[in-house]
Amino acid sequence: MIAVNQVGYAAGSVKHATISGGRHYKLYNSKGERILEGDAQLIYDENSAEEAGCIDFSEVDIPGKYYFVDEKGQRSCGFTIGKKVYASLFKDALRMYYFQRCGMALEEKYAGRFAHKACHCMNARILYSDPERHVKLKGGWHDAGDYGRYVTAGAVALAHLLYAYALKPKAFKLSHDIPESGNGIPDILNECAWELDWMLKMQEKDGGVHHKATSESFVDFVMPEDDKLEPVVTPVSSLATADQAAIMALAARLYEQYDEKRAKAYKKSALAAGKWLMNNREFIFKNPSEIHTGTYEDMCDADERMWAAVELYQLSGDEKWIWVIRQILELRINTVALGWADVGGLASMSLLMAKKGTFPQDLVDKLKGSWLEEAERLRKISASNPYELAFHPYNFNWGSNMQVLCNAMVFCFANRLSGEDIYLEYAASQLDYILGRNAMDMSYVTGYGEKAFKDPHNRPTVADGIDEPIPGYVSGGPNYRACDTAANPDILKGRPPMKWFVDDWKSYSTNEITIYWNSPLVYVLAYLTGGK
Ligand code: 9MR
Ligand code: 9MR
Ligand code: ZN
């Protein structure tokens, strides 16, 4: 088998594919002309439990369509070499957020055949603090294949999107074809405002932010407008409050130029959350026993607090936040992680993006050092296996594709810090994996690739009666600890970690979709295509 990036390779870039089950390969163009032929060197790959090798065909650079054939005569998926191979993928990866919008009818004009009525417009009940109190809570993005709305998950998705925008604004000049398009504000900001404005409603007057709003249990597989279960707002958590402080402070900076009113509201929210954090130093999080939806539980809020401090310092210039950063760094938290549970990497990224002189130089040096160390660690792992994936078998957890893409983010940002192009090559090899250069021979983005996954654990996709899924959604990916009825040790026994995946909507632990699995893809595509 020869596994390729099924979407394609950018002209002028390094181009790699992975061969297994034999070493001889031939490359053909769309006219059936043989362009290249050779033998790869095979080595054992622990992630796929196969002998496999890397094919370097970078010399082939004429725009067009191609495919490989292996020594058994098996044809690979087709792929393109071209200048703008990721343009349409990038747009659909962003339009995903429009499709996740809650509280708004998705009109045919923008949503096509996936249009549906407005959902979850009823008031929500506040749990514990004031059971009689009901609040207006329209808006936000559905978290995933379920209809929950979670502050911490939302903040992290927003962070990937907004830091990408801050780093590579040129990549975001495109219209998303959403209702706000053409209003003079970049569509990435239009889209993110849908979530940010909802997050404002999750905040109490004292600055504390409620952790999430979901029904008590997951609803069946119905369209969102048919979900009549009452939304319940769970208690304030320090995790949500710190994430809110950070993301609102960032948003206040980015929206100022375009939308003063919003920027002001975001600033107010960030400062109130910051005040709450200083008044509530001890860790607080409670997952109510009557709520059975996703918990996003996280035992440590130090990394969230550090991210908040980094952003609040840039917003307010208040020196106490430098003191907080120093205190937290004493705890030796992970300062490179970019997922929903550990956000230390978001703190570092923000601090390292700030203008020279903003933060004390010793902090800059320290965080830059850890970042480049992590990039080197990941580079060595990638360089040692034929898929050039920065993964060991134990990395295949729930949402492994997010980790793959977050590793690509680490490479991208390491390129910014060091100027070394080698990191771009490794960012691209992680992207290759997502788009088909993997042992499943599968593209993990709906609608993109000859063998793209089709059957996500996504309520609208199952309930809408349309065969095809909405394009541009990233799957969670192989999960060696899968625990659902379609993927579990009884069914997948003996499979290697890289193949512990089924394209079946019933497999929520391998094949769901989420807002924070698309966002690192957006970041990576923006970085790789957004120019200098
Ligand atoms: O649909 C739910 C999905 O969004 C969650 O990620 C997942 C894990 O919390 O749970 C899914 O719901 C399942 C529930 O946990 C168990 N019964 C079957 C539900 C739907 O497949
Ligand atoms: O993405 C989350 C993953 O890292 C966890 O292992 C998993 C189990 O706790 O939960 C995932 O988050 C789900 C959330 O709880 C509910 N909405 C769907 C999310 C993706 O499956
Ligand atoms: Zn909704």
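^ zinc ion complex. Residues 144-146, 218, 294, 508, 512 surround 9MR (ligand 1) (CB under 6 Å). Residues 87-359 form a domain with the Glycosyltransferase fold (CATH 1.50.10.10).
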